[in-house]
Here is the input.
Amino acid sequence: MKVIIGTKIGMTQIIGEDGVVTPVTILQAGPATVTQVKTVESDGYNAVQLGYGQGKNLSKSVSGHVKKAGEKVSPKVLKEFRVEELPEEIKSGDTLTVESFELGDKVTVTGTSKGKGFAGTVKRWNFNESRNTHGFKGNIRRVGSIGSMYPQKVFKGKRMPGRMGHDQVTVKNLVVAYIDKDNNLLGVKGAVPGPNKGIVTVEGKE
Here is the structure.
């Protein structure tokens, strides 16, 4: 089963035997513990829930839920992965590592993008600035008119200033270029959304 939860470490380069330099993002991938297995018979769909990291101050409901996977399991992150068919003999308490991945696998990585805070339209939507010429008051980054003559309202979805970033972003078809099974490291070719130390999920095609 090619799914794992990990932490983004950062980007680097690897040099192949042919001398080609490849930019890769290194992920601390797993180990992840199976905390629940859902089936069509009991839940209406097939899925595997994974726990990753070491959490603190878990609520009683979460603690009771993950206790079935083992007494010492205290995950920081819980994620559910839907699958068409469950792997054979998978059960609560099993551990998933990078050993299920192979070089050349295409994976889908999901993470939370960097938060940029409150941003204006020039930064957020790439709007042009107003002309800064004689007679202009100097506020060249303001939004300008946002209404209309009819029906005298601002339509939903109007591009306005607001919170920028900190959204869930998914990047597909990244290629696994590096695997370190001893240290649970996974290197994927290209960039991965989110800052360093951010939590990401990796899903491979079977």
About this structure: The chain has a mean pLDDT of 89. The chain has two domains: 3-115+168-204, 116-165.
